[in-house]
């Protein structure tokens, strides 16, 4: 799920799976249910990552064809193994090189803020879709109810002002309802709609929550990797104290993504 200067954040497919993959798999079906696409359509998934959204399209939408693009070759290889029958290629979401109007739907999942130019990525999605077709995507609500990350960074930033450099709640302003709508309208799409996609995130105990932050892949794990052992341990305990914890050590958080869709005009 990567493009541009931040592609190193997502260079390891296995680490991404541990950190965000399970939540990605849970939100993709909600997104497709919201789209309610008819069968037999031509789909392109930009920033397909390890194939989470593509796999859900293949399983539930009966596509005529499905193409996934991602800049990370390792992700493309994983996606191709996961989603037989679809086509996957290394490619840039902001400049695909594909002919215009060749798809009924252009989608992306959890990638827009990682592209080198989000507005250009939206233009490219619109260019790829025939008149009357649809562009649709979703991103994490980093500044609000993506609580796995929000809880972490709210604590980290009180302890270290440098943590803000890694906080997508600050650094990805397009991942909010207003900017998403404005971006989609700016590239000429009509009938624009935005909705929240919400799922629960349950952890059996704190270590299950904390372990993915040690994988080095993703904004928060990248920040943790910069810390000394002493600072990391203090952060861990401060985060532990901040989380809502049940009597048996269980932790229940909310996870939200914002989704937007718009129609390509004649």
Based on helices, strands and strand pairing, what is the structural class? alpha/beta
The CATH architecture name reads 3-Layer(aba) Sandwich
What low-confidence regions span 5 or more consecutive residues with pLDDT below 50?
1-11
Sketch the major β-sheet: 7 strands, mixed
Number of domains: 1
Order of helices and strands: HEHEHEEHEHHHEHHHE
Determine the CATH topology. Rossmann fold
Outline: globular
Overview of the structural elements:
Pfam families: Methyltransf_11. Keywords: Methyltransferase, Transferase. This is Class I SAM-dependent methyltransferase. GO terms for molecular function: methyltransferase activity. Its EC number is 2.1.1.-. This protein is α/β, with parallel strands linked by helices and 266 residues long. The chain is globular, with a radius of gyration of 18 Å. The longest helix has 23 residues, at 13-35. Helix content is 40%, strand content 23%. The model is unreliable at 1-11 (pLDDT under 50). α5 (147-159) crosses α10. Strands 3-2-1-4-5-7-6 form a seven-stranded mixed β-sheet, sandwiched between helices. It has a single domain (4-263), classed as Vaccinia Virus protein VP39 (Rossmann fold, 3-Layer(aba) Sandwich), CATH 3.40.50.150. The chain has helices at residues 13-35, 52-60, 73-82, 118-128, 147-159, 168-171, 177-186, 206-210, 219-225, 229-242; strands at 42-46, 65-70, 87-90, 103-109, 129-140, 190-203, 251-263.
């Amino acid at each position: 799920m990567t493009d541009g200067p931040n592609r190193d954040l997502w260079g390891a497919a296995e680490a991404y799976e541990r950190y965000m993959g399970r939540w990605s798999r849970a939100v993709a079906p909600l997104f497709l249910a919201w789209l309610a696409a008819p069968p037999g359509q031509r789909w392109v998934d930009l920033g397909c990552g390890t194939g989470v959204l593509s796999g859900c399209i293949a399983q539930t939408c009966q596509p005529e064809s499905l193409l996934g693009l991602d800049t990370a070759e390792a992700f493309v290889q994983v996606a191709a193994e996961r989603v037989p029958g679809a086509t996957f290629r290394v490619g840039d979401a902001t400049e695909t090189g594909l002919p215009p109007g060749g798809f009924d739907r252009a989608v992306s999942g959890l990638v827009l803020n990682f592209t080198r130019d989000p507005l250009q990525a939206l233009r490219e999605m619109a260019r790829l879709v025939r008149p009357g077709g649809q562009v649709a995507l979703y991103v994490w609500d980093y500044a609000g109810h993506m609580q796995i990350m929000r809880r972490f960074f709210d604590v980290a930033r009180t302890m270290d002002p440098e943590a803000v450099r890694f906080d997508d709640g600050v650094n990805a302003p397009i991942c909010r309802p207003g900017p998403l709508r404005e971006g989609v309208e700016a590239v000429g799409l009509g009938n624009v709609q935005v909705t929240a996609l919400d799922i629960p995130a349950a952890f059996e105990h704190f270590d299950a929550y904390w372990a993915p932050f040690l994988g080095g892949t993703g904004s928060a794990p990248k920040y943790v990797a910069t810390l000394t052992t002493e600072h990391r341990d203090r952060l861990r305990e401060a985060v532990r104290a901040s989380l809502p914890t049940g009597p048996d050590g269980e932790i229940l958080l909310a996870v939200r993504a914002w989704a937007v869709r718009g129609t390509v005009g004649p």
